[in-house]
Amino acid sequence: xxxxxxxxxxxxxxxxxxxxxxxxxxxxxxxxxxxxxxxxxxxxxxxxxxxxxxxxxxxxxxxxxxxxxxxxxxxxxxxxxxxxxxxxxxxxxxxxxxxxxxxxxxxxxxxxxxxxxxxxxxxxxxxxxxxxxxxxxxxxxxxxxxxxxxxxxxxxxxxxxxxxxxxxxxxxxxxxxxxxxxxxxxxxxxxxxxxxxxxxxxxxxxxxxxxxxxxxxxxxxxxxxxxxxxxxxxxxxxxxxxxxxxxxxxxxxxxxxxxxxx
Length: 262
Ligand SMILES: [Zn+2]
Ligand SMILES: [Zn+2]
Prior knowledge:
alpha+beta
C-alpha cells in the first residue's frame, strides 16, 4: 500500500467495476479492497488483496472474457445526425468545472466507466433474470439532438437498458421503476459501490430513477427506462484526456503481463 506505478494505475482502471476506483497510480485502500473483491468474485480464490501473477493473469482474462462487443461499440458512439463528429466529439468547448455543466467534449469515453460496464456484465452473468440489452446512449457531442442539455454524456456517462427475462424494460412505464431500482441497488450499488445521486466525489454515480404512478415524468432529473451511470464526480486529475478511449485498442491497451515484462 502506498506504492506508485503506472501498472497500479492500469489495475485501478481495469478493475474499477469491482468496488469502484479512480485512475490513480497509487496502491490505495480502495485498490486493496478492489483486488479482494476481484479475487472473491471473479477468481474465486482466497482474498489476499495482494497483486500476484495469478491476479495479473486473471485481470487479462477478465478483459478478454468481458470485452465490449462491436455491437456495443457502435451503440457507444455519438449519434448526431449528418455525422457532425466521428463518434466522440470534436474536442470543442472549454474544459471547466463543475463537471455538471462542463461543455468540453472529452476525446472519447472514460476507461474506468467502460470497465465498470464490463463488471456489470460479469455480475449480471451470475444470475439469469436480468441482462443488458443495449447502450441506448453513450457519447453525445454538442451537435447531438440531446447534446445541448447534457454535458455528462460528452465522455463521462452511459445510458444502459435491460431485459428482465424476456421482458424488455423500455418506454415510459411506471412498472419499469421497480426492476430498474432492483438492478441499481443489487448490482451497481452492491458491486460497483455506485452512489444514487451526485453527493460524494470519486465514485460511480447512477442518476435517480423514478416516474409518477400514472406514467408521467417527475422531472428531467429522473430516469425511467434506463440506468444512467457516470463518472461526473471524479476530480479533475482523474478526468485527463488520456483516460478517455475511442475503441477496443485504446480501452484495453496492452495486456498487463506484457506491461509487467517490459
Ligand atoms: Zn456527435
Ligand atoms: Zn444519461
